[in-house]
Specification:
The protein starts with 9 loop residues before the first strand and ends with a helix. Strand 19 and strand 20 form a beta hairpin. It has a 6-stranded mixed sheet, with helices on both faces. A 5-stranded mixed sheet has the order 8-7-9-10-11, with helices on both faces. It has a 5-stranded antiparallel sheet with strand order 16-20-19-18-17, with helices on one face. The protein is 37% helix and 21% strand. The protein is built from 15 helices and 20 strands.
Length: 456
């Protein structure tokens, strides 16, 4: 059977995969999964085709006897918080997150506000590919879609409840916020105003064409944002992705700080404030070794997971033994608030940390271990990719290794990750070392080894 779901929902190009017909069938499948009489909260980001997909999918849900509540335009974590806080049976978010503008997608969310477990995606796919449709008696259909307009206010209040608003306001912080022309525009400026922060907004008008930049916040797309921080002498900068479940942090020197670096700092800070939580965090295997190097001496345990925010969230939810979870792409989960990636919570927590430490953001990041990264990839089919992973395992058999998602090698002054792509015929190679020369040697030797042994 074909696969619809990726690492976080279903995504495709509008007018190609994402059509009214597809969305209607998905509505039937999702409705059958939750069951007749279920109460679902739905919403979307600003992307083109969003209303088309939402309305078609809603028709399928209603046809399965589901009670639908529409929260309109809002960030993914706002919808998730609303589901958990208001006791909904689940929900659906129409978004393609950080993908380019021509994409849209569908995220299915459980009653705990977290995306459904990956194993449950097969149930929905089975309904979809079998073209499932209930045959209900006419009296069983719900009469209308209910409108829920208070979710954003509920969400912002929830974020604010986690921090010392008065302490942050007294610092008179100057902050640059890049909203990516999407639904972060509806929450980030409001949050910063309520925190008493002087906000300089970039790309905070809603525009489905994303004219300011690509929705993915990275070093290439944030060049102007980085320079603007130093221009206005801001204390910090934050850049959302398309559905605002991530916030990439930029320090007062205009440097982009990857999510694993931010995650290490915020986790350490959180253990000092929320002392009734275990001193443990979970992060994906693609995060840097600096996480362990920095946190373990402080008595904070690091649990490694396969790549994917849903995997991290479900692991925390199952084990109930951590204060945070994070990814290197800027996704941070503040467990005392909600076990999901949350851009607004990341912003508030970072400013809370700044207000407590009385140091510049750049100084805080400079305390972290310094590694030099290289990322590359090799075209490889499934068999070649598997061969490449085994070749690396054999070469580094005397080192500490993890094999939960490809193979990760831990050295004293380097780390190496080789893992097959989950969506493309590629073998991805990530390396970091404490010198540029060392990481270049390790990655080049790894590419050579895999090509000689596996790519013929």
């Amino acid at each position: 059977m074909a696969k619809l779901f990726g690492t976080d929902g279903v995504r495709g190009i509008v007018g190609d995969l994402m059509t009214p017909e597809f969305s209607l069938r998905m509505g039937h499948a999702i409705g059958a999964y939750f069951g007749k009489g279920s109460r679902l909260l739905i919403g979307r980001d600003v992307r083109l085709g969003g209303d088309m997909i939402l309305r078609s999918l809603t028709s399928g849900l209603l046809a399965e006897g589901v009670k639908v509540y529409d929260s309109g335009l809002l960030p993914t974590p706002a919808l998730q918080f609303g589901i958990k806080s208001l006791g909904f049976d689940g929900g659906v978010m129409i978004t393609a997150s950080h993908n380019p503008p021509e994409y849209n997608g569908i995220k299915v969310i459980s009653n705990d506000g977290i995306e459904i477990p990956h194993e449950n995606e097969d149930i929905i796919e089975n309904y979809y590919f079998n073209n499932y449709s209930s045959k209900m008696e006419w009296r069983s259909f719900d009469n209308e879609v209910k409108i829920k307009e208070d979710i954003i206010d509920l969400y912002i209040d929830g974020v604010l409840s986690q921090v010392d608003v008065e302490k942050i306001a007294k610092k008179n912080f100057r902050v640059v916020i890049d909203c990516a022309n999407s639904v972060g525009s509806l929450t980030a400026p409001l949050l910063l105003r309520k925190l008493g922060v002087k906000a300089y907004t970039l790309n905070c008008n809603l525009d489905p064409y994303f004219p300011g930049r690509n929705p993915e916040p990275n070093a290439d797309t944030l060049q102007y944002t980085m320079s603007y921080i130093t221009l206005v002498k801001a204390d910090a900068g934050f850049a959302h992705d398309g559905d605002a479940d991530r916030a990439m942090v930029l320090d007062n020197n205009g440097r982009i700080q990857w999510g694993d670096r931010t995650g290490a700092l915020l986790t350490e800070f959180s253990t000092k404030i929320w002392k009734n939580y275990n001193k443990k965090t979970y992060t994906s295997i693609s995060s840097s070794n600096l996480v362990e190097e920095y946190l373990k001496p402080k008595g904070i345990e690091v649990g490694w997971t396969p790549v994917g925010s849903v995997t991290i969230a479900r692991e925390i939810s199952k084990r109930k033994d951590a204060i945070s979870g994070f990814e290197d792409n800027g996704g941070y989960m503040h467990v005392p608030h909600h076990i999901v990636r949350d851009g607004a919570m990341t912003i508030a927590l970072t400013l809370y940390m700044l207000s407590e430490y009385n140091e510049s953001l750049a100084n805080l990041y400079d305390k972290l271990p310094q590694y030099y990264p290289i990322k590359t990839k090799i075209t490889a089919n499934k068999e070649q990719a598997s061969c490449g992973v085994e070749a690396v395992k054999e070469k580094y058999s005397s080192y500490r290794i993890l094999t939960i998602d490809g193979v990760k090698v831990f050295g004293d002054d380097f780390w190496l990750l080789v893992r097959p792509s989950g969506t493309e015929p590629l073998l991805r190679i990530f390396g970091e070392a404490k010198s540029p020369k060392k990481v270049e040697e390790i990655v080049n030797d790894t590419v050579k080894l895999i090509k000689e042994k596996c790519i013929r």
